[in-house]
Amino acid sequence: MSKAVQWIRENFGRAPKVVKIGGGLFLILLGIVGLILPIMPGWIFLIPGLIIIGEYYPPAHQLVEWLKRKYHSAIGKEMR
User: Fold this and answer.
1) Residue 41: helix, strand or coil by DSSP?
2) How confident is the model at residue 56 (pLDDT cuts 50, 70, 90)?
3) Are 66 and 58 contacting, i.e. CB atoms less than 8 angstroms apart?
4) Residues 21, 28, 22, CA angle at the centre, nearest 5°?
5) What is the residue extent of each domain of the chain?
6) Residue 32 binned pLDDT confidence (cut-offs 50, 70, 90)
7) How many CA atoms lie within 13 A of 55 on its CB side?
8) How far does Cα 60 stand from its chain's mean position?
9) Is the pTM of this model over 0.85?
10) For a pLDDT cut of 70, what percent of the chain falls above it?
């Protein structure tokens, strides 16, 4: 392995994680703005942002799991 490749791996190894967290936070902020503004549906951005952040932040993961349980219980009630 060349020194350049080794240097890139050492210095940019965490870059994908930082990009994912930054993207998730951006989607959450965009979702919050969408919930406030009537011209933009906020949940379309908020839910994917929570799913992305949930990989790294346990309270967000617990919130996503709670939303899944609520969704499945609501669908189950409609099916009966």
Assistant:
1) coil
2) confident
3) no
4) 20
5) 3-79
6) very high
7) 14
8) 8
9) no
10) 80
